[in-house]
Amino acid sequence: MKEATMNDPAWTYLADRDLTLGPVSRVEPGEFTHWRTSRDQDGVFWAVIDQQGSGTNTLSQAVLEEFSRILDLIEQRMPKALVIRSAKRDGFLAGADIAEFRDVDDEAAIRERIAAAHGVVDRLAALTIPTIAIMHGYALGGGLEIALACNQRNAVDGTRFGFPEVQIGLHPGLGGTARFTHLCDPIEAMSFMLTGKSIHDRQAKRMGLVDAVVPERHVEAAIAAAVRGDLDQAHQGLVGRIKDSAPARRLAARQMRAQAEDRAPSRHYPAPYALIDLWEEHGGDLDAMKQAEIASFARLMLTDAAQNLIRVFFLRQKLKDLAGKDAGIAQVHVIGAGAMGGDIAAWCAWKGLRTSLSDVSAEAIGAAVGRAAALYEKIAHGDRLKIRDALDRLIPDTAALGVTSADLVVEAAPEKAELKRKLYADAEPRMKPGAILATNTSSIPLKELREGLERPERLIGIHFFNPVSRLDLVEVVTHDGTDEKVAARARAFVGHIGKLPAAAGSAPGFIVNRVLTPYLAEALTLMDEGVPPEIIDKAATDFGMPVGPLELADQVGLDIGLAVAEMLKRELDWPIPDAPQWLRDKVKARELGKKTGKGIYVWKDGKAVKGHTAKRAAETSNMDLADRLILPMVNTAVAVLREGVTDDPEVIDAAMIFGTGFAPFRGGPIHYARQRGAGEIVSALNDLARRHGPRFEPDAGWSEGGRFEEDGPIAHETP
């Protein structure tokens, strides 16, 4: 049989297709920077967005102004139909350019800008010709609102859709709240906007958000069918109209507020409640809801929550940019198939890397593969081929043969320096030239682990957080002898697998565990003082933490928390209290928390069972408790910056938000210090030190003057 080549017709048919972008030889007149315009032989006008200077299309003011000029052309010439498409291979449109709002502090100016944008989108919606959005990759936020203004929405297989605005303290602002709830089941549409989560093409088709889902090779046929009127268009239907009635909206709104309060308390996150109010009051009236949306969006934009959450958006982008591009890593070997090692291997395989997994226990490897299969079932959205391919890439390796061919070897053994060094002594001589040796240690300084290595310059820390599949942060830890090329490749690897690299120096605990430990230690001390765990955790969640410190300790594992605390106390001569005896007794009895079903709490069905004090905790709010928990974190963050574990305060904030869930609406511990005021925090720390001991004494960084101060150094003398 003749071997297929890339020139064969069959190969051409099966290969990835170029995007269908309309005719290149029939360009319409008009000079555009961010759009391409053309008209095909059937009289269909193509408007293809390809934003200059960006790998992603956003609805910047310049992009919208050019689109308005395109609408001028269409209104003058009235083509047979309009197709809107993206030339970016990764996706359609990613929403508004949030950077344009960062320096706007006038509500009237924001309303004026949003109203002008509404005017452009309303002109699109008012066209009497077929208007067809062809979406691929992703359609998010304002981009999806543009599609909603079209009368036909088609998606290429695999497209994701989302309104993520609530995650930055806002709600859709280009008419999307009104158009979406009028097009689809309004309860389902509201739930979609309130969570900010993305959905895939099949779900979007089922709910009526898109009219057709087609492979790329059928895009032209789908457009022709839409122009002929052969494709059914989604409509709300009778049930949707009933749900959009005023009595139904009032009932549903009460339920929505109760559900939102559990996820995003109204005192911290106003956006979900503004969206619910908007729909409850105006949901039956498209035009009224659009107008009210403008004012609501402008008010939200100036809230502290929105400004801080927008800042978090840019912190995420900053870490993405630190990742770089090319890691040169195609094959990974993971040593240790425990909870962390197995999950690291599973994630690498899911992200397309050939990944071998070794352990002294074949049973542990089998359990890790089983967990991987369960994870893939959850995240594959029914794509059996993706599950199969990921499992094919995950290779059980009882003999650790993968060490010899891996570009990256990740050690994920228990937190014992001697054990880790023994594993390195076995692995390093077998690694190929240029391969990187990484440790997933959560706290051990690399200077301890590099002892005995022939090539210490290629040892680096790549510290994942649990659960690996859900937490985005990965600390990339260097020691004073790390090759910078190794560090750059490690950061690029982290970016390649969809995580956020936070660069840190090799100090005990690095960034996250160093800052987090005094928070956990103080919670244990409060328990020793007789404060019920539910009340301690309630003080933290009232501040805005996603879970309380004691529930978090159970999730991490009491054994791990104890080991990290003892190491930090020893290495840093830190004035934190000794671990209580009851904690040591629990660890000895293997009552380690969630993973064993019992720790500080009893765990059932993956949730902590709160005791009889839970009701009392719900009625209690104690600022003193919150300060005792939170201010040690803030104080330690300042110490980490002063010591140069990182020289960037934004990296500390990002690490704590993406690694621990530190109250995102507060912008991170350093940013919280800026907003609350350094003087007030130093005063509070001194007061706590007088009442509770030297562990609360303000770090020298408060009075040294600092790089973490936005508008000049902090230079407060400690009383």
From TrEMBL:
Its EC number is 4.2.1.17. GO terms for biological process: fatty acid beta-oxidation. SUPFAM superfamilies: 6-phosphogluconate dehydrogenase C-terminal domain-like, ClpP/crotonase, NAD(P)-binding Rossmann-fold domains. It catalyses: a (3S)-3-hydroxyacyl-CoA + NAD(+) = a 3-oxoacyl-CoA + NADH + H(+). Residues 509-603 form the 3-hydroxyacyl-CoA dehydrogenase C-terminal domain. Residues 706-719 have a biased composition (Basic and acidic residues). Keywords: Fatty acid metabolism, Lipid degradation, Lipid metabolism, Lyase, Multifunctional enzyme, NAD, Oxidoreductase. In the central section; belongs to the 3-hydroxyacyl-CoA dehydrogenase family. This is enoyl-CoA hydratase. It comes from Novosphingobium lindaniclasticum LE124.
